[in-house]
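User: Could you write out the 3D structure of this protein bound to zinc ion? I've included everything you need below.
Assistant: Certainly. Input first, then the structure.
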Amino acid sequence: MTSAAPLVLGIESSCDETGVGIVRGTELLANTVSSSMDQHVRFGGVIPEIASRAHLDAIIPTLSEALRTAGVTLEEVDALAVTSGPGLSGALMVGVAAAKALALATGKPLYAINHLVAHVGVGVLDGGELPPRLGALLVSGGHTEILKINSLTSDVELLGATIDDAAGEAYDKVARLLGLGYPGGPVIDRLAKEGNGKAVRFPRGLTLPKFVGTPEAPGKHRYDFSFSGLKTAVSRCVEQYEVRGLEIPTADIAASFQEAVVDVVTSKAVTACREHGLENLLLGGGVAANSRLRELLAARCASAGIALRIPKPSLCTDNGAMVAALAARLVADGVAPSGLGFASDSGQPVQRISLAAS
Ligand code: KG4
Ligand code: ZN
């Protein structure tokens, strides 16, 4: 290794973004992303086989572009890293195969990285070192979780997660119901500004006392999410207008749906932080771009005395720099690389921050 801060190249391919990022310690040198989103538009959601094929096409050009942007060569890199899970299996395999080939060809150490923890680790690239007593709220098209970060490189706990759809997935499905196209998040975010968020009181999933319990006797789903009932409620609401031949108040429904999502997401995250002594919260994932989520989370964190940190949007959506950033921390902390014997793990639990060599 040539300097104290390791030069790390990270590859991400867990969903529909092919990302290659290069960092030197906490300094971002390149973050090249190629998305196959356009190819999924007509299906209203990510089609795994299409995503996998798009990764195959994009991986080499994305890698070359990232190296060019960073102005470094593969020989100069100290370590390689790749998302091994969680994610779509076929999609993950493309990144993992590419990373193993690079590791084999160059002899560089390879780290198999947890995608969710990488969403947190990316925080070091925007705002510096992560504070202690840190929680994370991850909201995207593929995942919705609340994490407790005891140590970024050795101890991460899952406090809560969705038991059905992810928050972004709910946005995409509701946008489809309302005929707004894909992806649904940005368009609902925009339209909701013209509507009344209190027009329809949509259900807040898993907020009944039998699910949340009390601080002393927490219910099984105290910090968990569910969005499938909300999606059904929106569908029923739209039907009511249709059967009566009335014009659908799309903006009001979009605003009311959005209010239901951000209300439950922000209140559960703040409750989890408060009850676990977490004075800092990092927001990540594609839905972090949502204006109402940012507004309400900022307000609720401020009243609870929680410092909120939101990395810039290009670091919140799936990217390779987050994989490289977490791996750079693992290298710095002396964690052993994963070798070449590991397999991608579509259900990789959050506790497995990187895979151990087999
Ligand atoms: O992190 P991401 O780029 O990919 C993964 O799903 O992992 O997130 C994409 C998701 C989509 O579901 C999209 O609808 C949602 O993020 N999204 C938003 C907004 N922008 C993107 N959701 C709500 N409001 C937004 N402004
Ligand atoms: Zn993600």
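The two ends are 24 Å apart (CA to CA).
User: Perfect, thank you.
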